[in-house]
Amino acid sequence: RSPRRSGESRSADRSADVPPWAWAAGRPAVPPSAHPAPGCAPAPPESDYDFAWEVFGGAISSTFQPAIEKGIKGVMKEGVLAGYPVVNVKVAVYDGKEHPVDSKPIAFEIAARECFKLAVQNAGPVLLEPIYNVRIIVPEANMGDVLGDLNTRRARVQGMETEKGRSTITAQVPLAEMLRYTTDLRSLTGGRGVFEMEFSHYEQVPAHLQQEIVEARKRELEESK
User: Fold this and answer.
1) What's the pTM?
2) Exposed / middle / buried, residue 10 (Cβ in 10 Å: 0-12, 13-18, 19+)
3) With 69 labelled, which of 50, 52, 126, 172 sits at a CA distance of 20 to 30 A?
């Protein structure tokens, strides 16, 4: 994420401001012997991947289902948005075509990859970032400086209390903003501040930061070739 990048970023289907389903009709450069028609939509936050086989009337033999899922999972691992894995997605295969002689599992795997990429792109994917619960204990005299610093880190302060000259601050902060916090807190408090943190959940990266992350990631991938 440029200076904000964390290895835990993931991409997910956006569940707002776009149609709930984005269909891909098997029209990219796919083998002529395989035309699955998948659709993708956001899955519940607790589910990384839901798959539904909704083909009726034998348009595609169910024997090709493993190959189709393999293609989809391959794209999920490689990522569509800046190379980050895809999560929280529901995929349904509802129609398609097969050739009675020439259709092979590999053809459906390739077709599923291309169709799924298109479906995700049409759905408007977003990046997710890990959010951590943070508890900070500092001298009361340093509380204002520490709060000001937290505001620059996109933190959401949950609570504050002071007792016997020591202030405790609880907040939720993106992990990407905490990478240098040990050094920075030491500087702000003269070495008298301590903190602890634990994972809470994932949230959507703000749109302006997502663009920075995607562009930086593309440069990294190009330079590594």
Assistant:
1) 0.71
2) buried
3) 126
